[in-house]
Amino acid sequence: MSKINKEEILNNYKKIKGRVHSIETFGAVDGPGIRFVLFLQGCYLRCLYCHNPDSWNPQGGTEISAKNILKNILAYKKFYKNGGVTISGGEPLFQHEFLYSLLEALEILGFHTAIDTNGFIDLKYSKKCIDKANMLLLDIKEVDENDCIVLTEHSNQNTLKTLEYAQSINKCVWIRYVCVPGYTLSIDKIHKLGELLNKYSCIQKVQLIPFHQLGSYKYKELQIQYKLENTRVPTNDEMIEAQNILRQYNIPL
Question: What residue spans of the chain are helical by DSSP H?
Fold first, then answer.
């Protein structure tokens, strides 16, 4: 694609703006290969273990045009030959119209795209973006609906509907599951996760993520109660045991 054509494409998106929490130019865990990771602002959920509570407020972050974001991504394009762009948050589908514009432009510019989503946005708003992206990184917060409400203040039904939709269109999905002792990490919980995920051929990888306390200071800065202050991080043995349980269900790790 010539420089002139690129500039024409970018100019089509100069008036389209969204709110951005942060960026990471060399992400190595948010999809295949080395990736540009864009964190959008705004999220409905209030996950007890969230390490970016500063991303919740839809009016927070910085307003940036799609054109400027795309220019930033293009500056690093040579590094993303075997990777691409992952749009995360917050919850990226919270800004679904802005997200779609970015995905549309990135497709034209030849980038592999992934949406890192909790799947809580209704499909009537999210379908268009899911269809446009190359893959989903879908965060399963909890398998049990009641426990999910305790953990996030919301039901998990929309997440499960999102997974069903991804299966119906054969969309590549990576599952992410945060292992929190006393909440999501137990032998019973991991067996239930395996039973659920075993049903879906669209799932190409499952990432078990150990809970950590790295974002706890943000709660103090924002004067938000942090309910997991005394929750320990999982041990290596616990994480290995969880992986071994999922392998019993032929889950790709």
Answer: 3-11, 66-74, 96-108, 123-132, 145-152, 157-168, 187-197, 216-222, 236-247
Residue type at position 214: L
Distance CA 25, CA 98 (A): 20
Low-confidence ranges of the chain (pLDDT < 50): 4
Interatomic CA distance for residues 91 and 14, integer angstroms:
23
Residues 47-77: tens digit of each pLDDT: 999 999 999 999 999 999 999 999 999 999 9
CATH code of the domain covering residue 186: 3.20.20.70
Domain count for the chain: 1
Provide the domain limits for residue 165.
Answer: 3-247
First to last CA, the chain: 37
Q: Which residues of 17-30 are buried (b: 16+ CB within 10 A; e: fewer)?
A: bbbbbbeeeebeeb
At 4 the pLDDT is 46
35: nearest Cα among 165, 133, 150: 133
> Is 176 within 8 Å of 137 (Cβ atoms)?
yes
State whether residue 112 is helix, strand or coil. Answer: coil
- Please report whether residue 252 resides in a domain: no
Is residue 176 one of the residues assigned to a domain? yes
| Structural domain contains residue 48 | yes
Helices (runs of H) and strands (runs of E) counted in the chain: 9, 8
Residue 89's SS3 state is: coil
Q: Which value, in Å, is the radius of gyration of the alpha carbons in the chain?
A: 18
Whether 253 maps to a domain, the answer reads no
pLDDT of residue 52: 94
At residue 134's C-alpha, the angle toward residues 130 and 135, to 5°, is 70
Side chain identity at residue 20, one-letter code: V
